[in-house]
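Fig. S4 source data, part A: sequence.
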Amino acid sequence: MDILKQAETIESRKDFVEFMQQLFRDISDNPQDWHNDSLEQYIDGLWGYSISLEHDKPTWRLFAQMLLAARVYE
């Protein structure tokens, strides 16, 4: 399953763990999709994206969306 679609289907911790495995593979398999490819850039993207959120109730799906967005968020 495409990683973007997978992030939208997360309902449980188990789904999140499977997503994390795919995310880990994705940086090797699709480096062109990762603008923030260093840990420093990635964490900065995660921080920036989290500031823009209006969610106060985190979910496993939201965690996955945040991690996915951090690949490219500036």
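Fig. S4 source data, part B ends here. The longest helix spans residues 13-29.
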